[in-house]
Amino acid sequence: MKSVAQHLMWFLPMLWLGMVLAISFLETPLKFRAPGVTTALGLGIGRIVFRALNTAESVLAVVLLAAAVVLGSPGGVWVWLGLAVGVLLVQVAVVRPPLSRRSDRVLAGEELPRSTAHYWYIGLEVVKVVVLIGLAIIVAP
């Protein structure tokens, strides 16, 4: 069981990192450049994609926490893992609700400027990328 947990502790942060990089830093900005994609359509797609991403991230976080418990991971691992989970929680519980309310308004036809919540979400994504790399390095076999 420990061998599986050890492999998960390295593999899952890298999987999580790949998902964040692919969706947040590649798919999201590019979708608005695609022909025929309106702001409303892009926001609708984004809501679905980010809900799925955050769900997948939550599952990965739970599995990583379980693997860390099974392994009796040292404090450094818990710090990096706690930071990753903490960033995700802030994004989902603090930043996404205002973004959702804003996208509801835009989808209802209001013209709104870009919100500062977008910048917070992007900043937290950058932090998450660094933290996931740190986690993978500290648990590397």
UniProtKB/TrEMBL annotation:
Transmembrane segments: 6-27, 48-71, 119-140
Protein name: Transmembrane protein
Keywords: Membrane, Transmembrane, Transmembrane helix
Transmembrane as UniProt keyword: yes
